Amino acid sequence: MPRLHIAQDDHADAVMSEHPFGLLVGMLLDQQIAMEVAFSGPAKIYDRFGTLDPTKIAAIEPGEFVEKCTTPPALHRYGRSMAERVQKLAAAVRDDYDGDTRAIWATDDAAELLRRLKALPGFGDQKARIFAALLGKQLDVRPDGWRKSVGPYAEDGSFRSVADVVDADSLQKVRETKREMKAAKKAAARS
Question: Model pTM?
């Protein structure tokens, strides 16, 4: 996999770049915390358990997994529930894709890619589209019709989501875009 720069931390970015399941976990964790903190989560799991193999993660005793994921620095601000979600995600990859995370995006059909992503625990429509955009923009995973299926997140030169984060400057641009969109939404609601 190409070298990612989402977490803005060399070790965390290396872990995600080397372990596809780590990238999937980072996307799962990317809610209600800063993006770079979410995408640092896979490195915490790797450092504490010595693996990001979904089959092995799914097999860890749930209490032990939660305990280590909630030990400071915790995996997420909602460490317990997110640790449980990570294990459910690992079990889905183990059961549905024989433990091969890359098999999720091994398709020539963008609609099928989105269907597979949306079927994963913790992945709704928007998260699936953002992750598909990340795959397309940064890992060159572009099944037929991916731009149309993914929508605005696939636009070149946009700074809408994690799919567009390649360095510290682009991270700041994504934050600015999100702030502007939030402000516009509030203004529209007041009108």
Answer: 0.94
Tokens read off for 67: 């305990």
- Please give the tally of structural domains in the chain: 1
Asked if residue 35 is part of any domain, the answer here is yes
The predicted-structure confidence for 161-175, as pLDDT tens digits, reads as follows 999 999 999 999 999
Assess if residue 2 is contained within a domain. no
Among 140, 141, 178, 146, CA closest to 159? 178
Residue 3 in domain: no
What beta strand segments (E) does 33-184 contain? none
Q: At what angle do helices 20-29 and 41-49 cross, to 10 degrees?
A: 130
Beta-bridge partner residues of 109: 144
CB 143 within 8 A of CB 137: no
Q: CATH number for the domain including 135? A: 1.10.340.30
**Rounded Cα–Cα distance for residues 90 and 104 (Å):** 12
